[in-house]
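A protein record pairs a chain with a discrete description of its three-dimensional fold. The following entry can be read in just this way:
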Amino acid sequence: MLEMRPDCEKCGADLPAQSGGAFICSFECTFCADCADALDERCPNCGGELLDRPTRTAKLLEKYPASTVRKYKG
């Protein structure tokens, strides 16, 4: 199950699990669309490809909540 991290690791932008616009690598490093573009769709942590993160519906978020642990280090 995806962790669905709540923020962009590069700029700190909020990335709600039920909304589009988040990009992840195979290790679930998470970035907003603007940062993913600036990174040429390559994860700066592992070098992996950044792909669109799927969304999670509100009903499933109730049963399987998204992470609240923010990864942005500012």
Notes: The first strand starts at residue 22 and ends at 24. The mean pLDDT is 96. Residues 1-64 form a domain with the Herpes Virus-1 fold (CATH 3.30.40).
